[in-house]
Amino acid sequence: MIPESRTFPEDFLWGASTSSHQVEGDNTANDWWAWEHQRPELIRGGRLSGAAAEWWSHRAEHDLDLAVDLGHNAHRLSLEWSRLEPEPGVVSSRALDRYRQILDHASRRGLKVFVNINHFTLPGWFAERGGWLSPEAIPRFRAYARMCALELGDLVSAFLTINEPSVLAYKGYLQGMWPPGARNLRLAGRCLARQLDGHGAAYVEIKRNRPDVPVGIAINVPSFDPSRPGRIRDRLSSGMLDWLINGALLYELRNGRRAPPFGLGLSSARRMLDFVGLNFYGMYEVRHEWGGRPRLVQRPTIATETADWGRPSAERFERVLLRLAQLKIPILVTENGLFDPDDAQRPQYIVDHVAAVHRVLQKGVDVLGYCHWSLIDNFEWAQGWTAPFGLIGLDPRDQSRTIKRSAQVLQSIARSNALPEPGWDPR
Ligand code: BGC
User: Fold this and answer.
1) Which residues, listed in sequence order, are joined to residue 75 by a DSSP beta bridge?
2) Which residues, judged by CB distance below 6 Å to any ligand atom, belong to the binding site of ligand 1?
3) Half-sphere exposure of 256 (CA within 13 A, CB side)
4) How far apart are the C-alpha atoms of 287 and 227, rounded to whole Å?
5) pLDDT at residue 196 above 90?
């Protein structure tokens, strides 16, 4: 018998997440495909997305079956806008059929499917017209959302509109490492604001056409701390980063008002959220010396030369969950994970992070479920194939799959729907 205190709610969701471009393969009509081919030097290791995990051609069903074998009862995936609408206003019935096949397969296997309609990638034609910054961005995204709701809404448990608007704004418009490769603070702010407007517009369209389907957004909420709490500059810089990346966005979602520096006044994302998806990876310590710029100095940290997911911290994850609870809507953990080539740290990371979820559930926070990032090693954007995040290992050269120890750890937690015994060694 499992003692009551370690169990999760009966209908708790256990699963993993994926995104279209990262697993489908041959997404030749989106901005990322073009970017990878124009700027291969920006893809670490030089291997491009290519066939990815071959989900589009045939392997989605196989991997979703593996997820079911691994005890999952939920999966989060994304739709590829460039496949569904290859030209402005033209819907591909072939792409719709393939998505219907995948979604139908998942639900017949007992998976609740959370469907993100946009996970970073944009159709080439949309990007060429200015992407999120174009005057037609919102009507175009609204029409796309309507089509997704009408054509696929019967097969989804819930929709998510956009994945991590602040990450796209940062990587694509400030850091310049992702398409469109801009480095401009003002444009980054505009891109963020536009995506939130897009979220509001998509929410309305989906609800109008599928009133019973819950709609959310997935946001990345890292935790920032001053490296030396006694130093005013560290505290100010950490507070400023937290405001820019998390605070302003949460303020807008909570109050329906845009906050500086992203604008002022009523936001079109006003009360347009049935639940919120949380993506959490780690915590950052901010240090700001006189005459220098703020730096992230947490050690150890999960990083490459060009990306830093922070220091794993289940305690900060718990804090972020409590912060999100202030939105007073259910939370779904839509991503949580780490890149760990040997799968040495991931088993313990999973145990620690689901324990944090359990603690907030006991405090009365409404968490619907936990989706690990990711189900399978995949194309990790500018990190190419060099940052494996999967529960299932994938060798992109021969498409072979291996079940990692961490997958078994999550499997045993999901199957028992309970935390492991205290002191259990997940390795
Ligand atoms: C994104 C994923 C990505 C993961 C790991 C998240 O920011 O939504 O697409 O693979 O982080 O970097």
Assistant:
1) 16, 113
2) 19, 163-164, 167, 220, 279, 335, 373, 380, 389
3) 7
4) 5
5) yes
Alpha carbons 50 and 114: distance in angstroms, whole number: 25
What's the pTM? 0.98
Least Cα distance to 319 among 221, 201, 412 occurs for 221
Distance from residue 291's CA to the centre of ligand 1 (Å): 33
Residues 6+ apart with CB under 8 A from 399: 51, 53, 54, 59
The 10s digit of each residue's pLDDT in 27-46 is 999 999 999 999 999 999 99
Strand intervals (E) in 93-249: 112-118, 158-163, 215-220, 223-226
51's tokens? 């066939």
* Token representation of residue 347: 């088993």
pLDDT score at 1: 45
Query: Is pLDDT at 219 greater than 60 in this prediction?
Result: yes
Element (H, E) at 362: helix 346-362
Dihedral sign of CA atoms 78, 332, 296, 374 in order: negative
Start-end of H helices in 132-184: 137-152, 165-173
- How large is the average pLDDT for residues 374-390? 98
Cα-based torsion angle of the residue sequence 230, 236, 241, 244 in order, rounded to the nearest 10 degrees:
150
In the chain, the amino acid numbered 149 is A
**302 C-alpha to ligand 1 centroid (Å):** 13
- Tell me: the pLDDT tens digits for 67-106? 999 999 999 999 999 999 999 999 999 999 999 999 999 9
Q: Whose CA is nearest to atom 12 of ligand 1?
A: 380
Q: CA 266 to CA 80: how far, in whole Å? A: 30
Ligand 1 centroid–CA 397 distance in Å is: 22
State the pLDDT at residue 239.
Answer: 98
Asked if 78 and 20 count as a contact pair (C-beta separation under 8 A), the reply is yes
C-alpha 2/C-alpha 418 separation (Å) is: 7
Q: Which of 167, 373, 375 to mutate to test the pocket of ligand 1 (most atoms within 8 A of CB)?
A: 373
